[in-house]
Write a structure and sequence with these properties.
Layout: H1 2-14, H2 30-36, E1 42-49, E2 57-63, H3 65-73, H4 81-106, E3 114-118, E4 121-124
Antiparallel strand pairs: 1-2, 3-4
Helix pairs in contact: 3-4
C-alpha cells in the first residue's frame, strides 16, 4: 500500500502545473524610477576641469522629460531640451556667483570704500 501511495505522489508531481518562472525584477536606475513615478530628475554625471586652466571646465548632466517640462513651466526657453537645461544651469551658476558676491559686499572688511578728496577727486580702497 505504501508503495502505491509513493508511486501516486511521484505521478502527481510529474503532472503538476508548471509554475510561472519567477522573473527577477530589474532594479531601476534613479532616472528610470523618477520617470516611472512621474517625478522630475536631473543629475550631474561628470565634471571636467582643464588642468592647465582650472577656471575652465564642463559638466555633463542627465535629465528626464518631466524635469524639462517643469523648466518650461518656470519660463525657461530653448530650441532643444538641451538648450533649456543649459539655460537653467547657467541661471543656477549665476545665482551662486551673485550670492557669493552679495555675501562679500555685506562683509565690511571686503567692501569698497570711497573717500572724497575734494576738487572732484575720490579715493577708493
Amino acid at each position: 500500500m505504501a508503495e502505491k501511495k509513493n508511486m501516486w505522489s511521484k505521478l502527481k508531481d510529474t503532472f503538476k502545473k508548471d509554475e510561472a518562472p519567477k522573473t527577477k525584477s530589474k532594479k531601476l536606475s534613479p532616472k528610470e524610477q523618477a520617470t516611472k513615478d512621474g517625478e522630475p530628475y536631473v543629475e550631474v554625471l561628470s565634471m571636467e576641469i582643464d588642468h592647465n586652466d582650472p577656471n575652465n571646465g564642463a559638466f555633463e548632466l542627465d535629465w528626464n522629460d518631466k524635469f524639462v517640462a517643469n523648466l518650461i513651466r518656470a519660463g525657461y526657453q530653448g530650441k532643444t531640451d538641451a538648450d533649456i537645461v543649459d539655460n537653467w544651469f547657467k541661471a543656477v551658476c549665476q545665482n551662486v556667483v551673485m550670492e557669493n558676491w552679495e555675501q562679500d559686499q555685506a562683509d565690511p572688511t571686503k567692501r569698497t570704500q570711497t573717500k572724497d578728496l575734494g576738487d572732484g577727486r575720490s579715493e577708493k580702497s
